[in-house]
Amino acid sequence: MEVGVDFTVLRYFVAAADGGSVTAGAQAVHVSQPSVSRQIQALERELRLTLFSRQGGRLQLTAAGRAFLPMARDLLAREEKARRAAGYLASGAMQDIAITTLGTTLTDVIAPFLVTFTPEDPMPSVRTVGLDRLFDAPSSTDLYIAAAAPPPWLESRPIAELPVFACVRADHPLSGRGAVELADLLDHELLVLDKDFPARRALDSAAELIRSAPRRTHRFFSPEVAMAVAAAGRGIAVVTDDPRFGLEALRILTPEGPLRIHLCGAWDPHHHARGQLESLCRRLETFCIDRYGEDVSPRH
């Protein structure tokens, strides 16, 4: 037996059950008593169930009615949730936002940015992936935060040009300089990340432009571990993360300027909340400028 869901009738049923009479239920939903009574009787016929027994002018839920009542409440709650979600969709807003990003971007950019969210912002969820798989899940992502050029079918906006740092101990010969020329840096023992990390790709591309390469490298799959080893005096960690373990961050200077990665936001141009997604990217740009300085602005 197939039963169509009439949420109005379910609302009458729940109101009568809570009020203990059709009259009380009718008053709660602001409908006449005869109308509520007819609707409940029609519901019983449709369900082929007796939901109430009538004793002394009051309604008593039958066993079937007691079993059906929580189901009716659940359906009404789901309907209300669907209506709210539809309202958000119609207004071009989101209740929830799914972000896909890189692990290193999550630690130093996305997570601190989420601290600034208010109850008026969508509830965020964040998935981290490798650079080569960043754009592989369009159906489950609202916003990409990428240190890579997005594919042409996505709309995008630049967010920041974040520096790549050479992190050294206070007693390292390069300490205190504030910056180091790329050619000089390549002569040192470097603690580099795997090629799946934007910092490593930026370093390799810059070295190729000056037709050089690091003298000696050790590969790591975690910026934190690379910096920990640098703090132990085993080399210079090349990362985009904020320095840890008492390390000093040096800017890396190339013939084209400081070595940077280009962070951008990207989204489906047909997304119902594309305006809100672009607004979040503008907020993230401002956050990065406040955190790292005006020179990280993509319009600097």
Automatic annotation (TrEMBL):
The keyword Iron does not apply. PANTHER family: HTH-TYPE TRANSCRIPTIONAL REGULATOR CYNR, TRANSCRIPTIONAL DUAL REGULATOR HCAR-RELATED. GO terms for cellular component: protein-DNA complex. The lineage of its organism: Bacteria, Bacillati, Actinomycetota, Actinomycetes, Propionibacteriales. Belongs to the LysR transcriptional regulatory family. InterPro entries: LysR_HTH_N (IPR000847), LysR_subst-bd (IPR005119), WH-like_DNA-bd_sf (IPR036388), WH_DNA-bd_sf (IPR036390). Signal peptide: none annotated. Keywords: DNA-binding, Transcription, Transcription regulation. CDD domains: PBP2_LTTR_substrate. It comes from the Bacteria. Transmembrane segments: none annotated. One of its GO terms (molecular function) is DNA binding. This is LysR family transcriptional regulator. Residues 5-62 form the HTH lysR-type domain.
